Amino acid sequence: MLLSGNPPRGKLLTALIVLIVAALAFAPFILQGSKPLNVAATICVFALLVASYDVLLGYAGIVSFAHTMFFGIGAYGVAIALYGLGPSWTSILIGLLAALLVAGVLALAIGLFSLRVQTIFFAMVTLAVASAFAVGASQLSWLTGGEDGRTFSTPALLRPGYRLVENGPFGVEINGRTLTYYLVFFGVVFLFLLLLRIVESPFGRVLQAIRENPFRSEALGYRIVVHRTAAVVIGALFAACAGALNAIWLRYTGPDTTLSFSIMLDILVMVVIGGMGTLYGAIVGAAVFVVAQNYLQALMGVAFKAINAAGLPFLAGFFNPDRWLLWLGLLFILSVYFFPTGIVGKLRAETK
Amino acid sequence: MSAAESQTLDAGAALPQQKTDYVPILLPFALALVAYPFVGSFSTWLTLTLAGLAMGMMIFAMASGLTLVFGLMDVMNFGHGAFISVGAYLAMVAIAPMAGYAHTDALGPGLLALLPAIALAMIGSAAAGYVFERVLVRPVYGQHLKQILITMGGLIVTEQVLYAAFGPQINPLPRPEALHGSIDFAGAAIEKYRLFVVIVGLVVFALLQFLLTQTKIGLLIRAGVENKEMVEALGYRIRRLFVGVFMAGSALAGLGGLLWAFNQEQAHASMGGEMMVLTFIVIIIGGLGSVGGCFIGAVLVALLNNYTAFLLPKAALVSTILLMVVVLLWRPRGLYAVTSR
Description:
A: mainly alpha, ABC transporter involved in vitamin B12 uptake, BtuC, two-stranded antiparallel sheet, B: ABC transporter involved in vitamin B12 uptake, BtuC, two-stranded antiparallel ribbon
């Protein structure tokens, strides 16, 4: 019921998903300190963001490079509202609604304009529009705070200073930060289940049909442009929601955390490594990627020092923690080649 | 057979030709004219126009390979920007030993200093293009989705390899002394380097046009863009042709990267990705697969970019996107629609 008749399928995969979700659900009680909790919240936000991207890439077969733009619109909407109207729940709501409106209209315009022809055309147009948007956002500094972004405070209930229970379960204090985490977590869970519902609906089936054979689907009477555009709009709205949650969690919105192209690349890597066209891949991909990003770099740092000490500075350059995108890129290429179905596809095949 | 018919079938008669479409060619001139009253002073307008032309030539060099590769094989290389960066870095490597020539004021040695840089940048990026085609593009022919993802991955990896090899800093890349400074013309300062770039760009365009319209290889390429299967059916190995075009396109991107790097007087691996956006807009405006359209598109985009950067500095990139929208509303498949796709 809750999963819309689309369980993860496969014992190993189910176990993995349950493990990740359980770990995220109890994160504030298992993990101590602010960094691990930050990692958990990032996984939640990206799971939703990547899932919304998967509707485009995996289900509709559309490559978009503007997903961070919609993510950014959500984040900036909430940020500008909280900054301008003061920290209250109404401003969050106003910001979110405004962001959804902007994201929806923009997605509709881009979709209707450029989805008539090939998907490749759409990829190029979105790349251009997204980079123009990123430049624009950093230039309109009276509105967006420019390169510095906007730091703002959230409603009192969500501030770290707010204490609900001094000595909660496991002796952990439940404060505003914990509440914010659960707002993010349950928001993501709700929206993820909604996405699952959407892709399992007849609409989702038509999307898949169009992906597999556009010509035939059109012959059956489905309007390709309408369905593809609808997929783009849905993806944009959910991405904006993810952006809003991200802004509430970080209490900051700036170009680097929302609009930069490297985040777009992160999304691509997550969706491919996790498994395209499954939605569950988003959870796995986001978890693996964010954990790797936060802890693998430390490992590379160790290797970097070791090789440097061995007197091979040129080789060491490749292991510099800053070069971690190199290895990620290689991993990305290899996974597109050798397991296009990603971790989820592999695990499903194992247990079949 | 009537007399009129036999006349048209006369072997000596010229082949029926498609009418040349002149309207797009007039666009850059129209744009320059329209911009004039807004800019106001003649000298500023001339400087801006020359800057726009120079930038257009550089974008054309970067984008021409991309549009041909797409037209010929339906391959959209999202990693094309990598060759731009490779060209810029190789220029940096090759210019270093020529420092003696580069520091003199005379034009001859100054240009001589650039020669090895140009050669290395073009050969190096052609080689990079070969590897790219073999390793990344070949296994995913006909699969657009994978193509986009894989070539994007290739761009990231190349960028990171350049960072690892040359360091993450922005590398200063001074032009040869002879190409510094400007000439005074009708009260306007004409930068020597921009003049040089315009000449190089025109030479490249002329060579490319000659190759495409006057040689057999060019004929095959144009035929392949229009109908690949038919060329194959006639017994030509279009794959080999494609590899050649891919390498030539990469070499041109490398040249564009070199010109751009000297223009900015710095080399950085993020350049390629940044310029990619403009090259995409340009080839969409020009019509995917059309070299002539790409040239006009590049000049249009660059001119508009320079005028708006002067008039409304914040609207430069947005204006190019508006230009794309307007052009596509007028001609949905770009200025010159050469492919049937």
